[in-house]
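Readers of this paper often ask what the protein records in our data store actually look like. The remainder of this section carries one protein's record, kept here as part of the documentation.

:::
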Amino acid sequence: MKPTFLNQQKPLLTAMVQEKTPEGAICVIMNSLYDGAEAFGIQLCNLLPEYRNVETLRKIFSYCEGRPIYITSYRGAASKGLSDDERVELLLMGLEAGATLCDVIGDLYAPTTDQLTFDVQAVEKQKALIRTIHERGGEVLISTHTSRYFTEDEVLAYAKEQIARGADVVKIVAKANSEDEQMDALHTIHRLHKELEKPFLFLVGGTHTRLVRQIGPALGVCMYLCVESYLPVTTKAQPRLRNTKLIRDNMLL
């Protein structure tokens, strides 16, 4: 059995890895372990093409020391120009190499502005992929990243649609560019916690991100997405792992 992201007692401290080479990824993983990482989010879309094989991925994953591994295969970075089918091949390769949680983007096979397609054929292909991941012992996170503010009702509707497609974990990233939108996002987390039967990640980008990302898990978000340190490749909205561990451990005694 692979280590799981489900049914955890506390929101996991998940260290994100966005490196181009195996050596870079291994260094981030090792430093993150010293800072208290409990899981890893390895963004395979950043890994250069020459390193995309099962043997290399297994070597990288072996440094996670049995922690659960979450993988992405997005459209950007070193995967720019690939087809969605090619990106799915990389995702399934990561699953074979030992990852647990596979990120299936919500507009896979039919890109949309708000990253959740309702194209019938695309949705059926997504469901087939999700069945394949489950059959191979994996867990599925469906992700939606949008460049705009989402109302509570929009977030809830998107979350329920993701669950209907077979998601084990919901992920929605919206924008918060004011104090009011930030507070709305916290209220949205409270509502998702009350109304969803699945674990969820609700995050925000924009100018007002910190409060949601640092205390959202205390209100119901299933994990923290952290960085070990800030580098040119890292997502600057993600909080530092060592600081977040202190916040988490003191808030959730």
In short: The longest strand covers residues 139-145. The chain has a mean pLDDT of 96. The chain is about 40% helix and 15% strand.
